[in-house]
Specification:
The complex is a heterodimer of chains A (166) and B (103).
Chain A (H helix, E strand, L loop, with lengths): L2 H22 L3 H21 L3 H26 L11 H23 L16 H9 L3 H21 L6
Helix pairs in contact in A: 1-2, 2-3
Chain B lengths: L4 H21 L3 H26 L5 H31 L13
Classes of the chains: A mainly alpha (166), B mainly alpha (103).
Chain lengths: 166, 103
């Protein structure tokens, strides 16, 4: 077992533990912190997959900006840890059925062989220059539309969180 | 490269399932948003894994991952602003308390 495999197993198992902690914890701040840890492990997986730019974006945007936003809102709203509650038996039964169907579907999908596509482009090293270039050439329109969407989202957030809409 | 593509797909599937379970079972609206972020991340992991193993032309997987990350950031900002507006109106972020459509 080489370093790559060991790191894959370490990152994925740590990520699953953090993910379960995120949704099982009753304190919102603790689950946000576990989510930060999970994003960092996910960035490690992206490095293993040689997507270095996405790994950097993952740390900067998700573990940085988005999580600060979440923590600020948790702080502003002063939420108490939710109390323990009983399980609904119908809910547990339905959950088991849905989970079984999901696993069954995954088994069918993963038993199919994957046929690789023939790709024309051979320059696939994922350095920053190679990642950003298509963003300004082939993907110019989606890029601009995303910029517009971020602007609309910003205006919407400012309007929504105003005290009285006048 | 000894880790097959299927391992990454199964991992992303499990993370998606964890996020879905959180979004469906938790009552706190902020935790529901966090669980949606988990599902977004599982989808992005799938994109990157497919990109790496199949080597599609012109970095399509990475482009889609970049767009997905920026859309997810906008989505969480809007969601949190909605949570703040709901909290101001109902004095609660429990999704079970928010039943009435009347403003």
């Amino acid at each position: 077992m080489n370093v790559h495999d060991t790191l894959f197993w370490f990152f994925s198992i740590a990520m699953l533990l953090c993910g379960v902690f995120v949704i099982a914890n009753r304190n919102p701040v603790a689950s946000a912190m576990a989510l930060v840890l999970m994003f960092l492990f996910m960035a490690g997986l992206f490095v293993l997959l040689e997507a270095f730019f996405i790994a950097a974006i993952q740390v900067l945007v998700y573990a940085g900006a988005v999580m600060v936003l979440f923590l600020f809102v948790i702080m502003l709203l002063d939420i108490k840890a939710s109390e323990r509650r009983r399980f609904a038996f119908l809910g547990v039964f339905g959950g088991i059925v849905v989970a079984g169907a999901f696993v069954w579907e995954m088994r069918i999908i993963l038993s199919q062989p994957v046929i690789p596509l023939q790709s024309g482009n051979t320059d696939l090293s994922a350095g920053l220059e190679n990642v950003v270039k298509p963003l300004f050439q082939h993907y110019m329109l989606p890029f601009e539309v995303t910029a517009l969407l971020l602007l609309v989202a910003m205006v919407g957030v400012v309007l929504l969180s105003k005290k009285d809409l006048k | 490269m000894t880790i097959p593509l299927g391992h990454y797909l199964i991992l992303a599937g499990i993370i998606f399932a964890i996020g879905l379970a959180g979004a469906l079972t938790r009552k706190n609206a902020i935790i529901v948003l966090i669980a949606i972020e988990l599902m977004f991340n599982a989808a992005i992991l799938n994109l990157i894994a497919f990109w790496h193993y199949k080597q599609f032309a012109a970095l399509t997987g990475q482009m889609f991952a970049i767009f997905a990350i920026s859309i997810a950031a906008a989505e969480s900002a809007i969601g949190l602003a909605l949570v703040i507006a709901i909290y101001r109106h109902y004095k609660s972020v429990d999704v079970d308390d928010i039943k009435s459509l009347k403003g």
